[in-house]
Amino acid sequence: MLRLEGIHAGYGQTTILQDISLTVDRGEVVTIVGANGAGKTTTLRTIAGLIQPTRGKIFFEDRDITSMPAHEVVDLGITLIPEGRQLFPDMTVEENLSMGAYRKDARGRQAETLEHVLSLFPRVRERLGQSAGSLSGGEQQMVAIARGMMARPNLLMFDEPSLGLAPIIVQQVFEVIDAITSTGTTVLIVEQNVFNTLKASDRGYVLENGEIVLADTSEALLTNDHVRQAYLGI
Ligand code: ATP
């Protein structure tokens, strides 16, 4: 479904990603594991069309999207749930959710999608009329995920969904991600919570200093010596 071939990308004169090649097949859940600053967010932003690669190609459903602007990438059904949630704090939860449905394929089916999304997030349903900025961190993360779902994405990308959340909330976030993936939604996820994320995914890539140093099934990565030492603290 998604294929990156030899991607180089960065900011200004600084190259961060070096020769990144990866694939995500339809229905798969794929994780990118890496330390702070390894280039995980940069990878997701490059796929989303927010950063233009300097070399390499990106294909989505066999279409070359390498130079496609972000708003067109969104219309293809590639949705990024950004790190730090980035909700509109003064708007209600319901208004935030409707902002997620602006994609062409989602607009006409907003009411139906909202009902489906709220069935996954009962807590969000209770907070629909409240301003997003008044929610707890965990509730805001749920709204951010729900807003991403409102786009009826073909590929859903999560950037650090558990960042800064209490352990019990982290568990709830992973339960929601499990519920989303069990409906067959294709997912690419970036996380520092490596154990939980690999448990929830099919395959993973390990990114270090902008380069992919390991690629394997999640099961194999969980028992890999380097992953255990560097990312699982075992
Ligand atoms: P983290 O988990 O800390 O978010 P990450 O793996 O997602 O890490 P990136 O955010 O992709 O890492 O950052 C990779 C490198 O790019 C870092 O060295 C960072 O300082 C640099 N970087 C990120 N954003 C910018 C920017 N807007 N301008 C210049 N350099 C940037």
Automatic annotation (TrEMBL):
GO biological process: L-amino acid transport
Domain ABC transporter: 2-234
Classification via Gene3D superfamilies: P-loop containing nucleotide triphosphate hydrolases
Pfam family, one: ABC_tran
PROSITE patterns: ABC_TRANSPORTER_1, ABC_TRANSPORTER_2
Listed InterPro entries: AAA+_ATPase, ABC_transporter-like_ATP-bd, ABC_transporter-like_CS, BCAA_Transport_ATP-bd_LivF, P-loop_NTPase
MF GO annotations: ATP binding; ATP hydrolysis activity; branched-chain amino acid transmembrane transporter activity
Keyword terms of this UniProt record: Amino-acid transport, ATP-binding, Nucleotide-binding, Transport
SUPFAM superfamilies, sorted: P-loop containing nucleoside triphosphate hydrolases (SSF52540)
Family per similarity comment: Belongs to the ABC transporter superfamily.
Record's protein name: Branched-chain amino acid transport system ATP-binding protein
Organism: Rhizobium soli
